[in-house]
Amino acid sequence: MAPPKKSKKAKRESKKCKSMSVIPIEPRATESDWWDSFWQKNTQIPDTMSMKFPSFSFPQLSQQPNGELNAIRSRLPIVIILMIYNILYVVSNNHGGETLEITSFESLNYVEIGSAVPIDEAEGFKHFFRVSKQTFDYICSLVRQDLVSRPPSGLINIEGRLLSVEKQVAIALRRLASGESQVSVGAAFGVGQSTVSQVTWRFIEALEERAKHHLRWPDSSRMEEIKSKFETSYGLPNCCGAIDATHIIMTLPAVQTSDDWCDQESNYSMFLQGVVDDEMRFLDIVTGWPGGMTVSRLLKCTGFYRNCEAGDRLNGNIRILSEGVKIREYIVGGANFPLLPWLITPCDHNDISSSMSGFKKNHDSARLLAVKAFSQLKGTWRILSKVMWRPDKRKLPSIILVCCLLHNIIIDSKDKLQPDVALSSHHDPGYGEQCCKQVDPSGAAMRETLAKHLQHSKAKDSSN
User: Fold this and answer.
1) Within 13 Å of residue 197, how many CA atoms lie on the same side as its CB?
2) 41: pLDDT confidence band, cut at 50, 70 and 90?
3) Is the peptide bond before 152 cis (omega within 30 degrees of 0)?
4) In 110-140, which positions are buried (b, 16+ CB within 10 angstroms) versus exposed (e)?
5) Strand pairing of 110-113 and 115-118?
């Protein structure tokens, strides 16, 4: 007897079920598998136990117990072993083939694969993604709703499994942290270049929307805390922060080249301006403007400038000093900014008074917070410090903003900023500081008042 025919509705339901089951979803219970796989793949060391070094002796290592010696040797990648071998081979030949003693094998606590990767997994996690696992989980919670993959159009890996939210966040963070190509990042996670591109942009769009609360101007209570810290640390009463600007360098296709984007060092770049607090947290940023502008012109194109000029920002409590003079709220900046009543810059001439000389030292220390913040930002999120290859100028501001948000999330989460990843040099290497000649008389008077107050305070402290 022939089987009964299926109704049209049953056929549709059957097709729907088949299409939904083509790609298996990664079980929630195995969402940590991506890290185990990534850690093994990116820290796997070839077996060097059988490597022999003829004509070389290692007295410092030979004194170690076998277990410790094996542990030390097993942490050395084959590439490093061969490099050492080749160097010593040449040196040995230059010494007539004599046996050489190697006595400086110390500090073998890191595996060298392009850069120092800590052996400890928790430290290794932060090395690759710049955040602790706890902060990583918090970031995932922010973007989970936007990144959850659903069949049949969900993002998949090379095994055909849907990517978990955690793995997508890890891919995006690694791309931003390393600045490596999408191909390299994809290879580290077992996904293709296009997947890295899609995942990273989806993450940027999601975090840009979900993490807005991590970058905002402080309320009056928080601002009083900031002002207290600046006065305690730098002797600057009523100071609300430090400002600086940096270039994000990129290459542009010939059809998009423009003198506006070509900066003073003949690089094509986009500006990022930021105001930071005492903890190097960004309070206000502006980006998207061409690097060919001067810093002073950039400032005047921003909403921050307009708000300050209109009295809508830096308009908090006026401080009455012991000398009876009044000091309004202000920020400090470098000589490339104009001197304004709410923006105090250093005195740029050589024949400065003794009071101004002392003020300049304190001022420089305070404004260096912004310089350090940018060095930390560009060192942590290396995509900003490397030359971007033909970026979409409409998307680049979002990438920059998200890196600033991540910088603040690390601080807000009480996660430690990694000083060892900050740029060792200035955040704008090769760029000379421009000098802005604009001086507002009220700003000059304010600077002089601050200098005299600082001198008076130091004299009073020395007499006590």
Assistant:
1) 8
2) confident
3) yes
4) ebeeeeebbeeeeebbbbbbbbbeebbebbb
5) antiparallel
Number of Cβ within a 10 Å radius of residue 79 = 12
Handedness of CA 419, 421, 422, 423 (dihedral sign): positive
How much is the average pLDDT of 214-221? 97
Q: Which of 271-280, 315-324, 368-377 has the lowest mean pLDDT?
A: 315-324
Q: Distance between CA 175 and CA 380 in Å, rounded?
A: 11
DSSP output for 328-357 = --EEE--TTSPBBTTEE----SSS--HHHH
Q: Give the span between the Cα atoms of 197 and 214, in whole angstroms.
A: 25
* Range 303-312 contact pairs with CB under 8 angstroms and sequence separation of 24 or more: 304/273, 304/275, 308/340, 308/342, 308/343
Rounded mean pLDDT of the chain?
A: 79
Count Cα neighbours of 290 within 13 Å in the Cβ-side half-sphere: 15
Q: Among all chains, which residue has been given the structure tokens 């083509």?
A: 22
Report the distance separating Cα 105 and Cα 102, nearest Å. Answer: 7
The letter for the amino acid at 405 is: L
For residue 244, the cross-strand partners are 274
Place of tokens 């990664």: 26
Q: Are 237 and 322 in contact (CB under 8 A)?
A: no
What is the CB neighbour count within 10 angstroms for residue 441?
9
Query: How much is the pLDDT for 349?
Result: 65
Instruction: Give dist(CA 50, CA 47) in Å, integer.
Output: 7
Distance of alpha carbon 309 from alpha carbon 89, whole angstroms: 69
pLDDT tens column, 136-194: 999 999 999 999 876 556 677 666 678 899 999 999 999 999 999 999 999 999 899 99
Mind listing the pLDDT tens digit for each residue in 68-98?
Answer: 444 444 444 443 443 444 444 333 444 444 3
Taking the alpha carbons of 64, 70, 73, 74 in that order, is the dihedral positive or negative? negative
Residue 256: closest CA among 274, 273, 270, 244: 270
The predicted structure's pLDDT at residue 315:
96
Distance CA 256, CA 338 (A): 31
As to burial, measured by CB atoms within 10 angstroms (0-12 exposed, 13-18 middle, 19+ buried), residue 322 is exposed
CB atoms within 10 A of CB 43: 18
**For 148-186, b where at least 16 C-beta lie within 10 A, e where not — what string?**
ebeeeeebbbeeebbbbbbbbbbbbbbbbbbbbebeebb
* Residue corresponding to tokens 């900046």: 333
